[in-house]
Amino acid sequence: MSASFSQWLEGARPHTWANAFAPVIAGTAAAVMDGQGSAIRAILAAAVALAMIVGVNYANDYSDGIRGTDDDRSGPLRLTGSGLVPPALVKRAAFISFGVGAVCGVILSVMSAWWLILVGAACIAAAWFYTGGKNPYGYRGLGEVSVFIFFGLVAVLGTEFTQAGTISWRGVLLAVAIGSLSASVNLVNNLRDIPTDATTGKITLAVRLGDHRTRILWQALVGSAVVITLLLSIGNVAALLGLAALPLWLVAAQPVRSGAEGKKLIPVLGLVGRGMLLWSITQLIAAFF
């Protein structure tokens, strides 16, 4: 049995790619507001982010698969857990993706600041040890914290710094918003998997909090992006364009608020991701006003 290209693509989980592009767009918006901005550096940052998220998705597929965590799940196809692809090939795909990200990251670091290579190394280590290694931190309820830090603070502020050479208060607000939204995507994914994760020993934050409190936290994370939009508008009223993403988030909130479970929660991931991408684009547009 072998996987087709479409199945490999599904294993890379395209619905999560907004978590890669949105931080780069938001960081570029911050750089433009700083009076800077570089298309070439933004493209390199996007390449790093995309390679990293594909790598972490394949790494999670591999690590969860060999542990048996994916033997009974309601989410999208997993290559290792389904038996479609030998674990070693999925692991290789993960490290090829990390390698692509590392090369692009080194080029970007040479163009801006050499010490960013160390930040990139930390990102790769965090991506692998999320579910990899003997004591993965994703199994200890720290997944959302890591996503907030690396796909929020590091990705947004790193993008801003590579283009503007500085970090601004606007950049910090943008980073917190993107980090919160990215963490909410991870959280609802784990909310969906509470029953199976609890029985396989994968103690995610959702398992620790329980169903009800996880749903409350999810709403707080998404709601924080709305609050930050209002704060950004104090310095630039055009930032209110970000409220265009609100309808998507309200639709995403319906199954979370109504107590939906299993596959009924899957659309929430895409809705939040598309809303996050739209929000970051509106902030880039607002940066030119």
UniProtKB/TrEMBL annotation:
CDD domains: PT_UbiA_UBIAD1. One of its GO terms (biological process) is menaquinone biosynthetic process. It is found in: Cell membrane; Membrane. GO terms for molecular function: 1,4-dihydroxy-2-naphthoate polyprenyltransferase activity. Pathway: Quinol/quinone metabolism; menaquinone biosynthesis; menaquinol from 1,4-dihydroxy-2-naphthoate: step 1/2. The keyword Membrane applies. InterPro entries: MenA (IPR004657), UbiA_prenyltransferase (IPR000537), UbiA_sf (IPR044878), UBIAD1 (IPR026046). It comes from the Bacteria. The chain crosses the membrane at residues 40-59, 89-108, 137-157, 169-188, 220-253, 265-288. The keyword Transmembrane helix applies. It is a multi-pass membrane protein. Pfam families: UbiA. GO terms for cellular component: plasma membrane. It is an enzyme of class 2 (transferase). Its EC number is 2.5.1.74. It catalyses: an all-trans-polyprenyl diphosphate + 1,4-dihydroxy-2-naphthoate + H(+) = a 2-demethylmenaquinol + CO2 + diphosphate. Keywords: Cell membrane, Membrane, Menaquinone biosynthesis, Transferase, Transmembrane, Transmembrane helix. Belongs to the MenA family. Type 1 subfamily. Conversion of 1,4-dihydroxy-2-naphthoate (DHNA) to demethylmenaquinone (DMK). HAMAP family: MenA_1 (MF_01937). This is 1,4-dihydroxy-2-naphthoate octaprenyltransferase. It comes from Corynebacterium falsenii. The lineage of its organism: Bacteria, Bacillati, Actinomycetota, Actinomycetes, Mycobacteriales.
